[in-house]
Design a protein that fits this description.
Blueprint (H helix, E strand, L loop, with lengths): L7 E4 L5 H11 L6 E6 L2 H9 L4 E3 L8 H5 L4 E4 L7 H15 L3 E5 L10 H14 L4 E7 L1 E2 L14 E3 L6 E4 L1 H14 L1 H4 L3 E4 L2 E3 L1 H12 L5 E3 L2 H9 L11 H15 L12 H6 L6 H7 L1 H6 L3
Parallel strand pairs: 1-2, 1-4, 2-3, 4-5, 5-6, 6-10, 7-9, 8-12
Antiparallel strand pairs: 9-11
Helix pairs in contact: 1-6, 4-5, 8-12, 9-10
The structure holds NADP nicotinamide-adenine-dinucleotide phosphate.
NADP nicotinamide-adenine-dinucleotide phosphate binds next to helix 1 and strand 7.
């Protein structure tokens, strides 16, 4: 693939929550950059190509797929799945991107002070230090907890909002806000954004507060089941709570450590909102009430 004047952006995770939304936003501003979708699935890639969309197969567990996927690519959106493999996956990908002449990389990390001992926070930080030591210009995007977790790992259980962190609040951010920020940074490139770290948090809510919003949104009583991390550990041990299929065991264990550190107040520094969405996009962020209203049917479906 020959390079053209329009930068070509390889978007990892284009079948997932964040990557798909990044592609959607990049396509809303045609002419700035060309998004190139990726998936591990050859059938998915072929379907995209049939639809006249640019796409390549890449498997982060198979570095032999990297050179072909990176050919003719100028900018790269790096996101990894819910796996401890993010460390060696990203290291090998950054090396291959350097070799392929990629100039700019945007990485999806986590909202942290960089000193967290929670394993998946530490993995993301290690990855970012490696990126910083590469020849590529970079921007890190640090989202707080995805509102979309309410449709996945934090979905209602028996009609209840389960919250294993007592009365502790955490920060929340809508996936469309994360993706809109990532897409803007990718489209504007390193001149505008190299070396920046964008922290994303637009609402502070605990389980009881989430349950109140959900009750209003769906028009049915959604009680909060307020627990401690020890209660959650007992539920896991009894087989009453399992990790989602897209999360490996090490990452799942890490989320329990995160819950414990949150419960103990060790994450209190992160209970803040940021003005990043307003600063970069010139509009207010999506607050939880609007997000819940937009996903009312998916929330209602969890009650049936
Ligand atoms: N959920 C949160 O609250 C939260 C908060 C902060 C940060 N994060 C970070 O967000 C990231 C996950 O984002 P997400 O929720 O958008 O992910 P997601 O919806 O689970 O999507 C994962 C994507 O990664 C791709 N993928 C997985 N393994 C791959 C591999 N070996 N090779 C190539 N592609 C692979 C999948 O594509 P195919 O299956 O098509 O190959 C899929 O498109 C994680 O790094 C997590 O730490 C999450």
């Amino acid at each position: 693939m020959q390079k053209t004047d329009i930068p070509r952006v390889l978007v990892l995770g284009a079948t997932g929550r964040t990557g798909a939304a990044v592609v959607k936003f990049l396509e809303e501003t045609p002419g700035q950059v060309v998004p190139v979708r990726t998936s591990r699935s050859q059938a998915t890639v072929e379907q995209w190509i049939k639809e006249e969309k640019e796409a390549v197969r890449i498997d982060l567990d198979d570095p032999d797929t990297f050179p072909a996927a990176l050919e003719g690519i100028d900018r790269l959106f790096v996101m990894t799945g819910y796996t401890s493999a993010m460390n060696h996956q990203t290291k090998s990908l950054v090396d291959a991107a350097e070799d392929a002449g990629v100039s700019f990389l945007v990485h999806l990390g986590v909202f942290s002070n960089g000193r967290s001992t929670d394993p998946h926070f530490a993995w993301h930080k290690l990855v970012e230090r490696y990126i910083a030591g590469s020849k590529l210009a970079w921007t890190h995007v640090h989202p707080h907890v995805f509102m979309e977790n309410l449709l996945g790992i934090n979905r209602l259980r028996d009609g209840q909002m389960v919250w294993p962190m007592g009365d502790k609040q955490v920060g929340w951010i809508a996936n469309d806000d994360i993706a809109a920020v990532v897409a803007k940074v990718l489209a504007e490139g390193s001149e505008a954004h190299a070396g920046q770290v964008y922290e994303l948090s637009s609402d502070l809510l605990n389980g009881t507060e989430l349950a109140e919003f959900l009750t209003t949104t769906v028009g049915r009583e959604i009680p909060a089941l307020v627990l401690t991390p020890d209660d959650l550990q007992r539920m896991i041990d009894a087989g009453l709570d399992t990790a989602p299929p897209n999360m490996d065991a090490a990452y799942a264990a890490s989320t329990l450590i995160w819950a414990r550190q949150t419960f103990e107040g060790r994450m209190d520094y992160s209970v803040v909102t940021t003005s990043t969405v307003k600063d970069l996009l010139g509009r207010e962020p999506i607050r939880f009430a609007s997000w819940a209203a937009a996903h009312r049917q998916e929330l209602l479906d969890q009650l049936s």
